[in-house]
């Protein structure tokens, strides 16, 4: 169970980092397609934000504490920080890549949850993988 809790903590930290990056891009996107990307990033960050509390609650259901600080998230996350403000198309490409990483991370933690008999958590993770695959598809489609 300890390995699953560690993986779930990485998943939660990565989920929060992805949310923060999408929200950053929503706030800071510029260019002739501003409205389109502002709305797209807004939809993505809102969807991801809605899952953060549920992710933490799933960790608590395993009788562990959820990480809840920027320093913990920075050390655990598989999603890198974004301190600069790239152009709109670079934002889309970065977020598409990160969404694909999140889908894979969700799959990895899902497999661990199933093996541990944490089927409710596994169902949640299957939904997260599906959500991230949709985000990646929509973002990649914007690059074509």
Describe this structure in words.
The radius of gyration is 15 Å and the shape is elongated. Helix 1 packs antiparallel against helix 4. The protein has one domain: Up-down Bundle (Ferritin). It has 144 residues and is mostly helical.
CATH architecture: Up-down Bundle
Give the class-level CATH name: Mainly Alpha
Q: Which bin fits the share of residues in helices?
A: over 70%
The share of residues in extended strands comes to under 5%
Run of helices and strands: HHHHH
Radius of gyration: 15 Å
- Number of DSSP helical runs: 5
Q: What is the number of domains?
A: 1
Shape: elongated
- Based on helices, strands and strand pairing, what is the structural class? mainly alpha
Question: Which key phrases capture this entry?
Answer:
elongated; Ferritin; 144 residues
Summed up:
This protein has 144 residues and is mainly alpha-helical. The protein has helices spanning 2-28, 34-61, 70-76, 88-115, 119-142.
Provide the fold topology.
Blueprint lengths: L1 H27 L5 H28 L8 H7 L11 H28 L3 H24 L2
Helix pairs in contact: 1-2, 1-3, 1-4, 2-5, 4-5
């Amino acid at each position: 169970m300890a390995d699953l809790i560690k993986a779930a903590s990485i998943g939660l930290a990565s989920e929060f980092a992805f949310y923060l990056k999408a929200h950053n891009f929503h706030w800071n996107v510029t260019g002739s397609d501003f409205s389109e990307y502002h709305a797209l990033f807004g939809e993505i960050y809102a969807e991801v934000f809605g899952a953060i509390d549920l992710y933490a609650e799933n960790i608590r259901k395993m009788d562990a504490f959820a990480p809840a600080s920027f320093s913990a998230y920075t050390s655990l996350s598989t999603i890198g920080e974004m301190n600069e403000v790239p152009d709109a198309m670079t934002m889309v490409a970065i977020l598409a890549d990160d969404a694909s990483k999140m889908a894979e991370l969700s799959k990895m933690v899902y497999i661990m949850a199933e093996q541990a008999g944490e089927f409710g958590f596994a169902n949640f993770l299957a939904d997260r993988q599906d959500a991230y695959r949709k985000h990646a598809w929509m973002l990649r489609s914007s690059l074509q």
